[in-house]
Amino acid sequence: MLKLSGSKRQYIIIGVAALAFILGLVLIYYQYNVLMDLRAEVEEEEIAVDAAQADLNRLLSHRDRAGEYRDRLEFARGKIPEAAREEEVLRYFQRLIDEHGLKASEIIFEEHVEEEGYTTIPLSLTLEGSYSGARKLLGNLRGSNRAIRVDEISLSRAEGGSELQISITANTFYRSQP
């Protein structure tokens, strides 16, 4: 066995202790970094769980309202007939125009557009009359028994008069045959 003097032995012990201390600090630093990474992952997972819970709550809410959605779907389907019936639309608009003191300059049905499950009938109306009459006509369209989507409305002063020229671009629909 190797014999060391007392001072050399002290230096070796101090060196081993310093080395152990430094290794301990390195291990603590490494463990601290691992701990911070794990905390970040946990935080990300908690955010993901919160988002999933919010989605689940939203879906459960929709499930609870399924009956209402079915009723609304049936109501909407009832507003889309199985045939174009443009003459009914024309009569409906003419009735509203007359009822609200407006005059029709032009009502034009444009080419039908096939969509998935239904067909769109674009139409444009040019009317003359008062702002109040136009507003009431549009209010009645909302409560129509047939689905009518108004896409654009423009108002301008009619030439040589005090009345408005009202241009309406709209669409009505019918179900496509399967």
Task: Explain how this protein is built.
This protein has 178 residues and is an alpha+beta fold. The chain has 2 domains: 1-64; 83-175, Alpha-Beta Plaits (2-Layer Sandwich). Helices cover 55% and strands 24% of the residues. It has 4 helices and 5 strands, in the order αααβββαββ. It has helices at residues 6-64, 66-78, 86-99, 131-142; strands at 103-109, 113-114, 118-129, 148-157, 164-175. Strands 1, 2, 3, 4 and 5 form a 5-stranded antiparallel beta sheet that branches. The longest helix is centred in the first third of the chain and has 59 residues, at 6-64.
How many extended strands?
5
How many domains?
Answer: 2
Distance between the termini: 100 Å
CATH H-level name of the largest domain... which superfamily? Ribosomal protein S6/Translation elongation factor EF1B
The global form is rod-shaped
Helix content bin: 55-70%
Stated plainly, the CATH topology of the largest domain is called Alpha-Beta Plaits
Per CATH, the architecture of the largest domain is: 2-Layer Sandwich
**How many distinct helices?**
4
- The computed structural class is alpha+beta
**Cα-atom radius of gyration:** 39 Å
> Order of SSEs, N→C?
HHHEEEHEE
- Determine the mean pLDDT: 90
CATH class call of the largest domain? Alpha Beta
Low-confidence stretches: none
Beta-strand content estimate = 15-25%
**Main sheet overview:** 5 strands, antiparallel
